[in-house]
Design a protein that fits this description.
This protein is an alpha/beta fold and 625 residues long. The protein has 22 helices and 23 strands. The strands form seven sheets. Strands 1, 2, 3, 4, 5, 11 and 12 form a seven-stranded mixed sheet that branches. Strands 20-21-19-22-23 form a five-stranded antiparallel sheet, with helices on one face. Strand 16 and strand 17 form a beta hairpin. The protein is rod-shaped.
Length: 625
């Protein structure tokens, strides 16, 4: 266990890899992230593949809002009067006569509505003539709490309604209606590249007149709190006392904190209110003053299209195959401003720091877990490996990859997503997720390849150095921790020295080929026994053998292993003598010295050649024994 925890060390030679990976990946992804955070700076001059990264970030944002955090409580005092397909069928072709809108306003006023807002275009005169406009204007004036929609004509080269030449032409309701309503608010929404609505413009600042003109959602929120349009404009500029600072992304754009899926807010059908008493479609739900008050007393009523044929439905983060009507998007925005539950997106410096740290930590972790993963993979391989028709089946590679996935990539991913979700759900703080996750993934893959090549190179080097001297089981342990095995250290070991009595004299009486045959047979037999007891062959010296027990892999019972090995070697030597007699060889007798002592072990030699060996007085004593 101690060796396992000690394996979590960072070799200095890996630092260059960590630095290079962090700088390269972070540098590239930071550029993409800047494009996402500041599209107004880059326009169409964007790097190849930006859409993929932006789509990835958007989908993670949607998942955090809709799936991870989920819907939040909606305000019961916000009510939608929907111009749906049933209303169009009941009342006839769209656009409806403005006398219908007048009837709706009068009935909502009768019901005690706190505020009435229209997400409907009134920038042109009624096709039914001035009398139709006059009826609606009179109803708005009687109510005194009606907010109408205005619009922006993007990239217009014309003058606005006040004769000022601007890039964005301001389109207001016809003067008769504008004069009779409480306020107007712009209705355009901001589409991302995938056409989803995740943010809105809160205001348009008119440089020519130094006016800040709010959009419909914040205008509804301001009017519902008794603010004038000018005060609401100051609020949108973060200059109104008593209001939280609105966290803008850039310009006057901010994220919409949606409360839930489409049809979250209470809805009433438009034709319930627009149909005259006694006519087909007249609803008992709003038939009496009491029913009207029950439905609309002190409510913020927003009127707008929900029918598919009117094409005002858009996808939002709460998308489940059904788009959200524009009127409900404005209702979500109105609730956000009323409750001041804004979503704050991390500034560029913080988001960049998150990206760099995520990449750095992943590169660091992939290097740090290299040794522990090798240890665990070797352990699992020793437990799971088996043979089929005499061929060994190993699981080291598969175990190494899976453990590297668990130890190298999952911790950064889990830490990043968990902290990200906590910030989003608990703090309403939006940290970047997709770009850091890409950084984590790329850093992990590069680290995986780098560590695999590094470990494989080290394993081959150690395999070549030790395979001739140690048992296969010991070799496996060495390969799992190749840096520790050859390190010089003073340890207690048990040494065995053996030789064949009188072999030098006897060998002079034999042919050279026969001498080699005798030695090879003898050493083969002894090597098998040594490996069976997991000893390390230091060296062969003619007919002599030097064996180490307790190094390079520590063995608590190394004295016992050495004694058992020596006894078995003597027994095998007796069998070897019997075999030699059948071949006409002289009798050979083995002498063995066994000694336990403190010695220095490690790779010793020159820069051209090194061997793993033991040195010290204990070695000399064992040799003399």
């Amino acid at each position: 266990m101690k060796g396992f925890w000690q394996s979590f060390r960072l070799p200095a030679r890996h630092l260059w890899f960590i630095g290079l990976v962090t700088l390269t990946i972070s540098g590239v992804l930071l550029r993409y992230q800047r494009e996402y955070e500041h599209p107004e700076r880059y326009g169409t001059h964007r790097w190849l593949g930006f859409e993929v990264f932006e789509s990835f970030e958007h989908k993670w944002y949607d998942a955090r809002m809709a799936s991870w955090r989920g819907p939040i409580p909606y305000r019961r005092d916000i009510v939608i009067v929907e111009i749906d397909h049933e209303s169009i069928e009941a009342l006839g072709k769209w656009p409806f006569p403005r006398a219908f809108h007048a009837r709706v306003v009068d009935r909502l006023r009768e019901g005690g509505a706190k505020l009435i807002a229209f997400d409907v275009d009134f920038s042109s005169n009624s096709v039914l003539g001035p009398e139709d406009d006059a009826k609606f204007a009179a109803a708005c004036a009687r109510a005194g709490n009606v907010v109408l929609a205005s619009n922006l004509d993007e990239k217009s080269d014309q003058a606005d309604d006040r004769g000022v030449q601007v890039d964005q032409r301001l389109i207001f309701p016809i003067p008769e209606l504008e004069d009779s309503c409480l306020a107007t608010g712009f209705t355009p929404v901001v589409e991302d590249l995938d056409a989803f609505i995740r943010r809105i413009d809160t205001a348009y600042h008119d440089e020519a007149f130094d006016e800040t003109l709010p959009f419909l959602g914040p205008m509804i929120a301001g009017a519902a709190q008794g603010l004038t349009p000018e005060q609401t404009g100051l609020w949108m500029r973060n200059k109104l006392k008593g209001k939280q600072r609105i966290p803008y992304i850039h310009g006057f754009q901010t994220l919409i904190n949606y409360v839930g899926y489409p049809e979250t807010f209470v809805r009433f059908k438009y034709y319930y209110l627009a149909t005259a008493e006694g006519k087909p479609g007249y609803s008992d739900l709003v038939a009496t003053p009491a029913a009207l008050r029950k439905a609309f007393k002190d409510k913020i009523v927003i009127i707008g299209a929900t029918a598919d044929e009117l094409r005002d439905n858009r996808p939002t983060p709460f998308f489940s195959g059904k788009d959200m009507p524009g009127v409900e998007i404005h209702a979500n925005a109105a609730q956000m401003f009323l409750d001041q539950t804004y979503l704050r997106r991390a500034k560029s410096r913080l988001s960049g720091l998150v990206l760099i740290l995520a990449t750095l930590l992943t590169a660091l972790v992939t290097v740090l877990v290299g040794k522990p993963v090798s240890l665990m993979a070797a352990h699992l391989d020793s437990r799971l490996s088996f043979t089929i028709r005499g061929r060994p089946v190993h699981f080291y590679g598969l175990a190494w990859f899976l453990l590297y996935l668990l130890g190298g990539m999952l911790p950064p991913v889990i830490g990043l997503t968990a902290s990200n979700q906590y910030c989003f759900a608990r703090l309403s703080f939006v940290l970047p997720l997709a770009y850091p996750l890409v950084g984590v993934g790329v850093a992990y893959l590069l680290g995986l390849v780098y560590m695999f090549l590094t470990e494989e190179q080290e394993r081959k080097r150690m395999h070549g150095r030790f395979q001739r001297f140690v048992a296969p089981t010991v070799l496996t342990e060495i390969l799992t921790n190749p840096e520790e095995a050859p390190k010089p250290k003073k340890v207690e070991v048990t040494l065995i020295f053996t030789d064949l009595q009188g072999f030098t004299t006897l060998s002079e009486q034999m042919e050279p080929e026969e001498v080699v045959e005798v030695l090879n047979d003898y050493l083969d037999r002894m090597t098998n026994i040594i490996f069976r007891h997991e000893g390390t062959i230091d060296k062969f010296m003619g007919d002599a053998i030097m064996v180490i027990f307790g190094a390079p892999i520590p063995q608590v019972d190394h004295p016992l292993r050495a004694i058992r090995c020596a006894v078995e070697m003597q027994e095998e030597c007796a069998r070897f003598r019997a075999y030699g007699r059948s071949r006409g060889w002289p009798d050979f007798f083995m002498r063995i010295g066994v000694h336990t002592d403190q010695v220095v072990v490690g790779s010793i030699g020159s820069s051209l050649r090194m061997d793993y060996t033991a040195i010290g007085d204990g070695v000399n004593l064992a040799a003399r024994l």
